[in-house]
Design a protein that fits this description.
By secondary structure, the protein is mostly helical. The protein has one domain. 80% of the residues lie in helices and 0% in strands. It contains 15 helices and no strands. Helix 2 packs across helix 5, helix 3 crosses helix 13 and helix 9 packs antiparallel against helix 10. It starts with a helix and ends with a helix.
Length: 396
């Protein structure tokens, strides 16, 4: 009885924290990782730095929305599979509901150019820079790891694609293994555990591939628009590496040429998606609503995020045992260093390049960073200050 009461308390805590993040996490997937790091690692200590970096590296390997998958993993650590679902719902539903409402009352508001939106972009600069500094301190302690982070930074800047990120992680992992395989690192004391059975892991991985390969066949055998929608959104969520920015053009290819949604409607929804917090994959909610009403919006959200859930639940049961393997531990030294470089690369482009245009933008970013790093103010205060600052800048 006491354990069930504690579990209910954990679930409620997960819901409250993830919902607050879902309401305030602007700036795209890399910024979300910064918000998660600040809230879950620094403030609440639900995970240690090492486990968080390992989880981020794992989710970078998986297709789908990396930041959402990290959030699901953290929820699982805190409250089991139900905790993962609650964490996902809290982080995702605010933007889903906002986009469903926007699509229902579709008009061109020009929200993508609003001053407070530009202010929130500058908030993302401060948040990501703070996160990168914290991770760099822990995961690039020597010249070897600093060099690997620099390699990942240069590679992903010169070849900006999801595949270059994966290549950077793989190469850094191989180099880390070669350089550290003879080191006696001792047994890794597990500070977190993922309460998922391997049987459930096998079932989820099997479902992921079965749905991916069988859906197109079923689609061709039937004339159901709902099955066609499910296939398009599920495939988009299954085959995209690199997060939400990559899925947007893929969704355009799926739905604009087929006539399900007009180019003007698509662009209006694209602007609205940039304006709301939370994962960019929630753009599916907008498209689904335009096509089939609010039911279509919820259906599309379920379809595009289902692959992310199945992959996380399928892989996490095996992650702890892999992390205990000395060879994997050696490789993870390089992988974690590469993640620092990738985050720094993303800080420059697209976050910095789309946010810091004028000297006054940099001044606001410096103020927001100081509030976060030096004055230790909570993230929601920084977000609110950034939004107000963005409005004031628009009048300058």
């Amino acid at each position: 009885m006491k354990q069930s009461g504690q579990l209910l308390k954990n679930w409620l805590e997960i819901l409250l924290v993830s919902t607050r993040l879902g309401l305030t996490s602007f700036g795209g997937p890399v910024a979300h990782l910064g918000y998660f790091h600040e809230e879950y690692v620094r403030r609440r200590k639900w995970m240690d730095e090492k486990s968080y970096a390992d989880l981020v590296a794992l989710c970078q390997f998986l297709p789908g929305p990396a930041s959402s998958q990290v959030g699901i993993g953290i929820g699982i650590v805190r409250g089991g599979v139900i905790g993962g679902i609650i964490s996902f719902l809290g982080f995702t539903l605010p933007s889903v509901l906002a986009l469903i409402i926007f699509a229902t009352f579709l008009h061109s508001f020009g929200v993508e150019d609003a001053g407070w939106i530009n202010g929130l972009k500058i908030v993302a600069v401060a948040v990501v820079f703070h996160a990168v500094l914290g991770m760099a301190k822990n995961f690039t302690p020597d010249i070897q790891t600093k060099t690997l982070a620099l390699f990942a930074l240069v590679l992903t800047l010169l070849i900006p694609s999801a595949y270059s990120q994966i290549a950077a992680i793989l190469i850094a992992g191989i180099i880390g293994f070669i350089l550290n395989r003879k080191e006696n690192m001792g047994k890794l004391e597990p500070t977190v555990s993922f309460p998922i059975s391997k049987r459930l892991g096998y079932i989820c991985l099997g479902l992921f591939f079965a749905i991916l390969f069988l859906l197109p066949i079923v689609r061709n055998l039937t004339s159901s628009n709902w099955i066609a929608l499910f296939d398009s959104f599920y495939r988009s969520g299954s085959l995209v590496f690199g997060g939400g920015h990559v899925v947007l053009p893929l969704l355009e290819q799926e739905f604009v040429p087929t006539g399900w949604i007009s180019e003007q409607e698509f662009l209006a929804g694209y602007g609205a998606t940039q304006a709301v917090p939370g994962p960019l994959f929630t753009f599916a909610a907008y498209i689904g609503t335009v096509i089939n009403g609010w039911q279509g919006g919820l259906f599309a959200t379920f379809a595009i995020f289902l692959p992310a859930f199945l992959l996380v639940l399928g892989v996490l049961p095996f992650w702890d045992s892999l992390r205990q393997n000395p060879k994997i531990k050696a490789a993870l030294i390089g992988v974690n260093a590469s993640v620092v470089g990738i985050l720094l690369s993303a800080l420059y482009h697209p976050i910095w390049t789309s946010s810091i245009i004028e000297p006054i933008d940099f001044a606001l970013a410096a103020i927001l960073f100081s509030m976060l790093a030096f004055f230790k103010l909570p993230p929601w205060v920084v977000v609110l200050t950034g939004a107000i600052g963005g409005v004031l800048i628009s009048y300058v």
